[in-house]
Structures are given as C-alpha cells and as structure tokens.
Amino acid sequence: MQHMTIRKSLIWLGGLMILAFLLYTLLDVSGTDLTPQDRINTFSTRFLGIFIEAVPFLLLGSLVSGLIEVYVSKDDLLKLLPKNPILATAGGAVMGFAFPVCECGVVPVTRRLFTKGLPMSVGIAFLLAAPVMNPIVFVSTFIAFGWGEIIVLRFVMTIVVAVSVGLIFAYLARPHETLLPVSFAPVRGGNWGIQPLPPQKMTLIGGLYRAGRIASDEFFEMGRFLIIGSLLAAWMQTRISQQSLLDIGSGAFVSVLVMQGLAFLLSLCSTVDSFVALSFLNTFSTGSLVAFLTFGPMVDIKSAMMFAGVFKKKVVVYLIVLPFLMTLLIGIWVNIWMMR
Amino acid sequence: MNITKIPAKDAIKIMILFGMSGYLAYTILSENLGNYINNSRFVWLTWVAVGLFFVLGVVNVLPFLRPKADATVLLIETSSIMPKSWIVMFICALPLLLGVLIPSQPLDVKSLTGTLSTTVSVSNTTVITRDPLKRNILDWLRAFSLEADKTAFDGTQAQFSGFIYRNPEFPDGVFMVGRFVVACCTADADPIGLPVYAPQADDLAEGQWVEVRGTFLAGEFRRAITPILQVEMIEPIEQPKNSYLYP
Questions:
Q1: Contacts of B245 in chain A (CB under 8 A)
Q2: Measured between alpha carbons, how far is A113 from B5 in angstroms, rounded to an integer?
Q3: What is the ipTM of this complex?
Q4: Which end of chain B has fewer CB atoms within 10 angstroms, the N or the C?
C-alpha cells in the first residue's frame, strides 16, 4: 500500500516537473523581442484552433458510442462478423465506411465496441484504419491529389498496416492483458457506464436520453486526453519551427521520418490532412507524403493520449511503434520503387 | 415541488457543457472563429458542436429538474461509475478558461517560429484566373511557381495586403509582406510572404498591416531570382477581421 503511495507521489512529482518545464520554455522569451504575453496569445490561438476543429468529431464519436451502447447488442455485433479471424480483422479495417469517424471520434467508438465483445484484432484494425477508411477522407484525398498513386497508396497502406497490427494482437494478446479495466467491464461482470435496463422498458425518448448521458460521460473521459494532446501539440508548434523539421532532409529515408514526425506533432484531423500534405508535394518524396497521410491518422499526439484511456501502457507503446515502423518501411519502399 | 439538489461535480459538469456551447456560439457570432479555424469551410461543424454541447447539457440537467423521487430513479438508472475527479473537470474546463480569459486574436508576426516561406504547392491543374490587381499573396506565389522564367512578371502591376516582416539579412529597403495560410485550423497555419522594396517605409514597424501597390521586377532574394515588388504606394491598414488566406 505504502509502495503504491510512493509510486503515485513520484508520478505526480514527475508530472509537475514536466509541466513546470513546458511552462518555463513557453514563457522564456530571452533572445527575442517578444513578451511572455505574446507567447501565451500564440499558444492559446494554436491550442483553441486544434481543439475547436477536433471537438465536433469527438462529440459525434461520443454520441455514436452512446447509441451503440443503447441500441446494439453483443449478439448483433458478433453475428455480422466473419468467423475467420483474418477475414474478421480485414472487416474491421473497412468498418469505417459503416461508422464514419475520424481519429478523435474513433477511440470512444472502439472502446464501446470492445465492451460489446468485439474481438481484439477487429477493434485494433478498426481503431487504426477508420480515420482513413471512410467516405469523407476518401473525398478530401481525391480533391487534393486527384486519382493517382497517392490516393491508392494511402488506402492500401492503411489496410495493410491496420490488418497486420490487428492480427499481431489476435494471436499474441488476450483482452485482459491489453485493455484497461474500464474498457473491459462486461467481462468482469459489470457494465462500466450505465446500469443495465431490461430492454422491454426502453422507449425511444428513454433510449436517446441514456445515449446522451453516456455520450456526455464519454466526452469527459476522452475529452481530457484530447485536451492534453492538443496542449502538447500547441506547445510544440509555438516553440518548434515547422521549417526546422523540413530542413533536416529530404532523402528516401530521412524524408519519411521527417514527415512522420510532422504528422505526429501537428495532430491534424484526417479529414483535412490531405490539403496540408498538398503543400509539401513539390518538396517531399511520394513515400514520405504517403507515410504522413497514413501514419498521422493512426497515431498523433492527441490520439496517442486518447489510447491511454483505453489500453494498458505497454499496448499504447505497441500501438504507436508498430504503425510507425510499418509506415516507415513502406514509405521507404515506395521511395525506392518510385526512383527506379 | 421538491427539486433535487445538484452535487458540486455534476453542477461543474453541467456548467462546462453549457459553457462550451455558449463560448463556441459566441466565437462564431463575434466572427472570432476565423482566428482559430478555416471558417469558410468548417463553420457548420462548430455549429454542430454548439448544438451537441447544449443537448448534452440538457440531458445532464434534466434529472435535477424533476421532483426528487423521479429524479432519484432517473439518476440511478443512468448513473455513471466513471471517476469524475476535480482534475478531469479542470482539464475539460481548460479550453473554456483559455477562451474566456485570453482575448481572441489571430496568429501574427509574433507567432512566427521561423521565417516566411516563398514556396507554395501547385498541382498540374492550378490556374490563376483572378485579375492581377485583385490577387493576394498566395495567388502571386502560385503564379510564380507555375512560371519557370521569373522575369516574365517584370512590369506587372500588383496590389495586396499583409503584415510587415523584417529580417536583418534582407537588403536595405527590402522587407516581406506576409499572411498565414490556413487549410484546416491553426495547427497547419503556414506563413508565406512576398518580398517588397519600399525604402520610404523604413519607419513602419514589424507586424504593421499594410496595403501595397507597385510593379514587379525580378531580383536576387535569398540566393534565388524572385519577382520583388517595387512599391509605389504603401499605406498602413487595420488588421482585417479574417486575416488568414484559405488555399
């Protein structure tokens, strides 16, 4: 017990020290003509920009999560999935076309689907692929790049990476080793959100009311991670120049790394990242652009923070590292293939 | 009627939900939304958030507006077991606190972490059809990208606006007039600018918004041949309400 208290105190201390460092670097204006107030203004504008852009998607995701909890039964869900685990995982990767959510909305929806008994591999494939595999992103990528290698590679790479990571989890992980207890409650004999009601008692208004209550809890639960992620992304953008990253290099290998780093730091919404990638079209390799468009929607600062609300720490690391390495390798391969 | 008392944490939760709805609605109506996101494309999404926050606020306040007995049943039926710590509440209130306490303003010259870019992307289908005197900085940079011979713009008249960006490395009398290009939100804000030669404007401070008119003449700028506007007229202007350019 005492051991736990010491550990908790150390975490608090570490967190406070990081916070103090971030605040210090934000307000440190030595060597510039700026005042701390200027820095706070820029930070606030950048933070609110990311938050205001992302929050409608988080709310819609929370609402879908609430509706799933109330209206979708475990049996319905399992009936729709193929029995073969590989086919089921592939199904998870394209499920975004049925539940069109971006990376801010996908986390609450996936967590809810897990509580409904969705297999681990299918949920992971859905979580990683859905921010790209949906009609809105297809249209925005098409408007930005037209029909060509970038749009094809973006969607193919997303399926390959999402299904591969999903299958790794299918064969090597058990739900209780992967999910936080809060995402796994039904198996433990409870239901984490709302006390169950006998289905026959539910009226339409009653159902919608319950979905709304769940959605608001979901907003607070996931919203805090979105906000912490947006704060970190805004800090990065206020202190680190985008140009300094781009200056690092544009070789077949380094360009992919740089664009992956940029995708992680910028934390853009997948529905609009194509327009940002377009501005790098003339300066960066195709492989790096595709890595930007594939890795960014799967993992960025804010979604990584949100993963921490669903999965155990070790799993969060895997969910960042595996897509990172796979998109890196495919990006480099695309560059080498294009140079031939 | 015996109305149920609202516990402190639930009260804060309800205030955050209604507060967010009100804050976002105010940001749209006061035309400050353009300081944060590309409001020509995404204002409807923010209205969706206004509506959803309001509905969630109502859903959370509803049990407390009923007579005590009914409310107890409703609360038990839908009570959440999720932890609602004060820290979670504080984090979720942060956007509201920053939005209310810090005056809304767009990114400007003080937000730059590097310099202004003079390269923009163009696709094979990019065509600049706008009248030269009505083109903005983004239109001109696109036109320059599409033309290999930078002297082709010599003698062309142009008029545009932006903020002044000075750099000790620029030649005497030369500064840049810049704007931020925002595709989605301030996360992707890209500062771009055009070099101008206006020795008569040396007294204008960095960051001042100006309207410039003049003629392009290709010259060396940052070790490349670039059209530089030879300014004939420059006048300070107020920062426009929508200060970003949208691609």
A1: none
A2: 35
A3: 0.90
A4: N
